[in-house]
Amino acid sequence: MKKKSLLASALAAAALAVLPVAAQATATSSVLTFSPTPEPSDMMTAEPSGAPSEEMTGPSEGPSEGPSEEGAGVPFGPGCRQLPQTGPGSPVEMAKERIANAIAQYPRLSELVAALKQSALADQLNSADGITVFAPTNEAFSQLPQDVRDKLKSDTAQLKKVLTYHVVSGRVKPSELKGGTLETLEGGKLTVKEENGEYTVNDAKILCGNVPTLNAVVYIIDKVLIPPQ
């Protein structure tokens, strides 16, 4: 009986010695296999679920007439039919580039691209992370009165003020355009609303929205937005 008691005591001591090591091994394994979700940057607080990530190469679906919250980065609107389906200027290719480089692929936005370069905003927007750009077409710029166009060409400070009025911090979801206001980088506010399936920003119509780029989302509009004086 004494031998059995000694054997039992030895086994119990061995089990107590092994237990902390096993627990430590389990904890270490848990740490090694845990992969935390990266924290978003300060400018991405308004990023929608479904916005394209840095690794995303393009939208999973083709353009649609109305916005779809289920499709990540799926462009919508009647003007989306004018976007190339493949190659430069297509949603898939624009999603691979930062904002200024992405819209430079689409000829109908060449006036905006030139204005961004003139005002030294192209690099600034390219380096931003998580923004929304309301992009006027060339036709929108041509609708401006000649004196306004001349003023913007000669006054870089005023041009920058107008262009930053088209930029909002965070990737804006289509659902956020149904009604309300958005604060711009210029400091003013934009009024957005949806009526009978038509989305507007101030008095400009959204021709093609929710177009993804590597660091931004683009809404192509039919008018240049002028900030209040």
What does this structure look like?
With 229 residues, the chain is an alpha+beta fold. It has 2 domains: 1-35; 42-221, FAS1 domain (Roll), CATH 2.30.180.10. It contains 8 helices and 7 strands; from the N terminus they run H-H-H-H-H-E-H-H-H-E-E-E-E-E-E. Helix 7 (146-154) crosses helix 8. The radius of gyration is 27 Å and the shape is globular. The model is unreliable at 1-8 and 10-61 (pLDDT under 50).
Hey, roughly how much beta strand do the residues contain? 15-25%
The average pLDDT value, as a whole number, equals: 79
Distance between the termini: 100 Å
Helix and strand composition category = alpha+beta
Q: Give the helix tally.
A: 8
How do the strands of the widest beta sheet line up side by side?
2-1-7-6-5-4-3
What order do the SSEs take from the amino end to the carboxyl end, as H and E? HHHHHEHHHEEEEEE
- What gross morphology would you assign? globular
Which oligomerization state do the chains in this entry correspond to? single chain
The CATH homologous superfamily of the largest domain is named FAS1 domain
Helical fraction equals 25-40%
The unreliable regions are 1-8, 10-61
* Number of strand elements: 7
Domains, number: 2
State the CATH class of the largest domain. Mainly Beta
**How many strands, what sense, and barrel or not for the largest sheet?**
7 strands, mixed
CATH architecture annotation name of the largest domain: Roll
The rounded Rg comes to: 27 Å
CATH topology of the largest domain: FAS1 domain
